Amino acid sequence: MTAVEPARRPAAAVAASGHSRPLTAEAPVGRPTAHWGMYLLVATEATFFACLLASYFYIQFTRGGPWPPAGIEKPKLVKPLIMVGVLLISSVTMVGADRSIRRDRSGRMLLALVITILLGLAFLAVEASDFQEKLTEFTWRTNAYGSLYFVISGFDTLHVISGLVMLGWLVVAGALGKFAAGRHERVRTVSIYWQFIVVLWLVIVFSLHLSPHFSDWF
Amino acid sequence: MTTVPTRQRPDTAADSGHDRRPKLITDSNEAVRVSEERVGDRVAEHWPEGEGVRGFISTVDHKRIGRRYIITAGFFFTLAGLNAMLMRIQLMRPGQQVISPEEYNQLFTVHGTVMIFFFSTPMLFGFGNLLFPLMLGTRDMAFPRLNAFGYWIFAASGLILFGSEAAGRAPDGGWFSYVPLTGKEFSPAINLDVYCLALLFLGTSTTVGAINFIVTALKLRAPGMTLARMPVFVWALVVVSFMVLFALPPLNTANVMLLLDRQVGTHFFDPQHGGDAVLWQHLFWLFGHPDVYIIVLPALGMVSAIVPTFSRRPIAAYPLIVVATIATGIISFGVWVHHMFAVGLPPLSMAFFSAASIVVVIPAGIQFMSWLITMLRGRIVLSVPMLWVFGFIAAFVVGGVTGPMFALVSFDQQVTDSYFVVAHFHYVLFGGAVLPMLAGLYYWWPKLTGRMTSRRGGVWSFWLVFAGFNVTFFPMHIQGLLGMPRRIYTFPAWTGWAPYNLLETLGAFLLAFGFVFTGLVFLHSWRRGAPAPADPWGGETLEWATTSPPQTHNFAVIPTVHSLHPLWDQASLDSFAYGAERDDRVLADGHETLMTSELDGEPERRLEMPEDSPVPFFTTAALTALVLGLLFRIYPLAAIGLLGTAIALCYWLWPFQGPAMALEEPVPEPEDVS
Amino acid sequence: MRPSPRAVLIIASAAVASGLLAGCSGKSPSILHPSGPGAARMTGLWWLLFGIAAGVCVVVIGLELIALLGRRGERTKIKSGGTWFVVIAGVAVPAIILTIVYGVGLNDMKALQQPARSAVTVDVIGHQWWWEVRYPGQNVVTANEIHVPVDKVVHLRLQTDDVNHSFWVPQLMPKTDLVAGRINNTWITADRVGSYHGQCAEYCGLQHANMAFQVVAQTQNQYESWLREQADVAPGVAAAASDPLIDRGRQVIETASCGSCHTVRGTSADGTIGPDLTHVGDRTEIGAGAVENNVGNLSGWIADSQTVKPGNKMPPQPLSPEDLHAVVAFLEAGGHR
Hints:
The complex is a heterotrimer.
Chain A: H1 10-17, H2 33-63, H3 78-102, H4 106-135, H5 144-175, H6 185-210, H7 214-217
Helix pairs in contact in A: 2-5, 2-6, 3-4, 3-6, 4-5, 5-6
Chain B: H1 28-44, H2 52-58, H3 62-90, H4 101-136, H5 144-166, H6 191-219, H7 232-263, H8 277-311, H9 318-331, H10 347-359, H11 361-376, H12 384-407, H13 409-415, H14 419-449, H15 455-481, H16 498-528, H17 570-579, H18 583-586, E1 592-596, E2 603-608, H19 615-631, H20 635-652
Chain C: H1 5-24, H2 37-69, H3 83-111, E1 120-127, E2 130-135, E3 140-143, E4 145-149, E5 154-160, E6 165-169, E7 173-178, E8 184-188, E9 194-200, E10 212-218, H4 220-231, H5 235-240, H6 244-255, H7 258-261, E11 285-286, E12 291-292, H8 295-304, H9 321-332
Parallel strand pairs in C: 1-5, 4-10
Antiparallel strand pairs in C: 1-2, 2-3, 5-8, 6-7, 6-9, 9-10, 11-12
């Protein structure tokens, strides 16, 4: 009989310890396929935004001249930074929701999810007001800068909305008792997506809102 | 004189530590027989085959979906080929007016677009779908419903494209659709909107397919199949799937931008308003160059599956091939500018991309030499699939040696956009993808259909296609050197291009006849071919240890894999018998398969797989409504489509089945390594 | 069954024969018959690359044929090995060859760089589907023909008025694109007096196939006298004084719709949408290489160019036969090709 190294095989450790279930009420052994699927989806969506932002910088640097061009004002920072704060908090609450359900605290999970949704809605509200302000100065039809600004921000908004739909779906399913310790894969799956949204917003703020100011600051 | 090789007990040097145990299984046919006899019925109970219309729409069986991909892609290939025949007829003589310039421009655009997007990758994804679970030793893909979804989208987007051709409104900007020609001003009609939307739609299918391949290869391998024991074809498709995830977004970005420029008035590509026409080219080729490797790498993977079987020895330098595949995938993202050497970019940047384009040739050379040394040191069995492989090697090397010529900036500037480049890419794409597909079709046909093909028919079909292909495309090298640009619907007689064009048209007819003949060979086999055993060729990988065609559940017993060539090593063969005694290898308590760890293929737990479902079909219908709404600018329809898609997805992902997520007993520790 | 050697031989012979034929097509705008240093350099590079390529093909196809003629049979052998072969034949040898090839390519790229000084500068502006040619500072505007002094460096500035095109004269120089929103620079030098065929090499829409042009290399004297003539008003203007038909032609041009698109210097026609027709009589072709320039073709073109080049931007002209005859007489007056 070939020797088995217990360290390599969690099940072996379990068998050796005499328990029939793993010691903690963690996820079942092995990374679920759904998580891998979501990581890969995030990778491709992130690449899509990378292409949009690369196009943004490409236009900026090949055109040369002042940026934003044509007398458009550099983006103001108050609202985008508020949105950063809102999303960062929502990131924490999302993690909280995931941890709660892994400890079988369905009620806590629901609360955390609802707070996350409200924060997401707040994000959208601030963004809407920012758009309204910008639209008085330029639109996506004005020039390439306007097209890039609104289309990039617009796709980001679409992704946030789809994240909110997923969260809403989780709330409904959670309220109907579909999740418990060991049956919470989907919460983590949505959480991966939500964290992607948060990081995405940071990158967009850096590119669209902060970087035009670098020539003034540095 | 060779016939179908008889099974012989392989010399197994790799039978470590099993000398003392009785050898239970002689060969793959016996492995199938023993496992099916003992536990086949118990497993089959949980794997019903969906019948009738409902079954047709709802099936998530990877084999049926793979077959559909192959048939549909083959159908699109035929239509695109007919386009090419019309083009060749128009070019048969100088100054002909059989086809008008409008029609010609649609013909060549659709030919290129379909061959690249709607034929080659889907066909190879079809083979992948068919073969992944079989080669990996599992019962389905990781996401069966997503698999079906990918097919329906492919079919729908293809219908949209061909529908536009039937309506005389097909895209006509060339398959790479350069702006400003394809912008609102110079292409105001709906034709280019079809291009953008059909490709965006199709891109969804390709992406979900790629995700499915990666996760299946990571999580659903047979126990003991470490990454270093994964077949080359699987590696190739995994690398390609990663490439898809990173290469499609630039294309999608470009198509979204073009669509918005056309429909909504944005200015991404409009130099008058701060945009840049060259941005399109960068984004397109950032996708486009990796795409040609996305097409070629799986085909090379198929060759790496066929060569060992008919050289009667494992593939040489397996680690180098894997590294070469990965290297090609990565480097291919760094060469795109070689499609733009005539655009007037700075010489320094062109020099960099020229170097990168040279470097990318080396991994291809590794694969060539590996096949060659495998064949030289093995014993060739000249079966029909192997004959196609020989043809492929000749054609692909011709295409492959003209490639580095284009890596040199100034030489590229002479021959790009001429028939020389048309010759090059047909040699690498037809030679490097279509010939392996035909080799693969002949190779896996017995597995797919349970019938053998006629050897004589196969040999004739090879020579007809191979001769037709060379007569059609080889003269194009010369034509290009004689100054004939591409994408012209006619040419004057004084140029001296006429004799070559005539020859090529004749070659095209020969090639077309060759394909018709090939189709007849398969038809004949379908009706009257000899029944095929599980393993007609004496192959080394797991797909040959299933019935022909495979049972819906593929493997009654999930085998344990001990080497790169499990059907040539005794321990892996015996695991079919030993496994029949074990619950955690038979997995007959439900619609189940085994989930294993990513790197080492160690069993983790049972995985309850989704059953047949019509939801992917209806989700596709909703998405189609969205796409058509955007195409015809009927925005209420688009809104309904969007809403329908969202509802369908919510329903699809609803956690109906508790047990899939339930905390499971860990799989009981096996007593020994097997 | 072995692959029929005969079939292989037939295909190979066909390939070789076609290759030989290539050398015989004297009139083709072939890159193998260069007439300028740029193209000549590329021809040399071609033969080097061809030699290497043919060698590689012979080796690879040879190896597979050797494998075919080698051992046969079905005994399976689990053996490893062959890695050294792959490393040497698949990595080391190609790396060396490719590095050399890259070096040569880089060298050639440098050799073909824009020279610092040029004798002549020409502006070429691409349109769907014709070429506007201007000689800045010389007051010369023409279309579809570029005259250059032989053996001199001619700097070309390439722009487009609409979509992307590509400027390609295979016997003189590798191509450079005309890209929307940019000005690209290239140069040509012709070694010999003669006329060289050029053609648009970037798909630009309906009549991309019929967007050709000529580069006409002349001696310095011929070139200078051509420039002088081109700067002058249309020869028909002077001829109109003594020929009533030509005079009638001038009147028709000035009263019909010609002037909305075309310029004919010396008359009131000053449109810029279509080619400048001041010296159209001197050009060897019309319609950007669509047809030879003669009275019959020019009449047909004016009457209904859609039958000659369907989809081009010039609508049919409803002129009476006499008016048409007169217009053609004016345009062709004094022209020498």
